[in-house]
Specification:
Elements lengths: L5 H18 L6 H10 L3 H13 L1 H6 L1 H4 L3 H8 L6
Length: 84
């Protein structure tokens, strides 16, 4: 029986936090969420952050977070072909 199993509880807690992050992506934090999701391989969160980046592309490119990115990460964002 898995109910109350510590690993299952930890997994549920982690999933809840990722979902919470996904519901709170803004144009101000979307780059950080995108790269966080990339590092931890959270595909749905990465896709939601990417969508927010694309919808706010010009504002994101002018942000201090973007300006401070290493060149390889900035290139990744600049390559988004669906950005508006």
């Amino acid at each position: 029986m898995l109910h109350g199993h510590p690993k299952l509880s930890n997994y549920s807690c982690i999933c809840f936090h990722f979902r919470y992050m996904g519901m709170n992506i803004t144009k101000e934090n979307c780059l950080n969420v995108y790269f966080f999701a990339s590092i931890y391989d959270v595909n749905f969160l990465k896709a939601e952050a990417r969508e927010k980046i694309c919808k706010n592309y010009q504002a994101v490119l002018k942000s201090q977070d973007f300006i401070g990115l290493p060149p390889e990460r900035a290139s990744e964002i600049l390559a988004f072909s669906d950005a508006k």
